[in-house]
Amino acid sequence: MLSGVKHIILVLSGKGGVGKSTVSVLLAIALKECGYKVGLLDVDLCGPSIPYLLNLQEKDVHQCPQGWVPVYSDQDQNLAVMSIGFLLKSKNDAVVWRGPKKHAMIKQFLTDVYWQDIDYLIIDTPPGTSDEHITVMENVRSLNCDGAILVTTPQAVAIEDVRKELTFCRKTGIPVLGVIENMSGFVCPTCSECTNIFSSGGGQSLANIADIPFLGCVPIDPRVGQSVEKEQSCVAKIPDSPVTAVFKDMVKILTKPIAGAEDGTAET
Hints:
Belongs to the Mrp/NBP35 ATP-binding proteins family. NUBP2/CFD1 subfamily. The chain has about 270 residues and is α/β, with parallel strands linked by helices. Helices cover about 35% and strands about 25% of the residues. It has one domain (about 5-255): 3-Layer(aba) Sandwich (Rossmann fold). It has helices spanning about 20-35, 50-55, 100-110, 130-140, 155-170, 200-210, 220-230, 235, 240-255; strands at about 5-10, 40, 60-65, 65-70, 70-75, 75-85, 120-125, 145-150, 175-185, 195, 215-220. Strands 1, 2, 5, 6, 7, 8, 9, 10 and 11 form a nine-stranded mixed sheet that branches. About 45% of the residues are buried.
């Protein structure tokens, strides 16, 4: 089922609460706005937040002869989404599963979803380096997996956990595309001034030490969260946001080696 997917990017973090799912959504939207066909797979089985972040909670997954059909927004057919959140009877249902059942579900997500022909598949993973990650790695390592993006926040405790995620990637043979520092300051919606409410520079420092690319600092901009929940693209609706600038630059970095190299793929 992944044979029609040209590129796969994993989004990883060493701990929860760093905004990994938000980064996954914004990256998928930024790629879509640049003309790519994008799939977004949520394999965070215990905390599936992708449907909420895209205001798709009421959508259902359907079957076709080829497998599961991913969910599409009513406003755009260039972004396909799959999450266990679409399979739960209620958004308040908890997934209380042991490792083998999680393994089986993730494998089914990676083999039974009919993505058709898409340019990029963004896989939003749970925090840590547990069974779910090993299952994903085993299934995508031999495919067109470009690599992983590591998400951290500026605090030292988050950066220390991301170091472990970096070690995990190197042990499993997954290339690291870069690190992004999320929640790097707060953008005032009135004056647009950015204030560092945490420390800053941790992501850049980690990238320098580990000799991996630094993809940018993403500040907290309340307008971005509001636009995403309304199924609106912050890239198109809020061009003046520093968040928009960061993700536009990130898309250029991630697609530069293949921009224009494939038929039907837009240049950035």
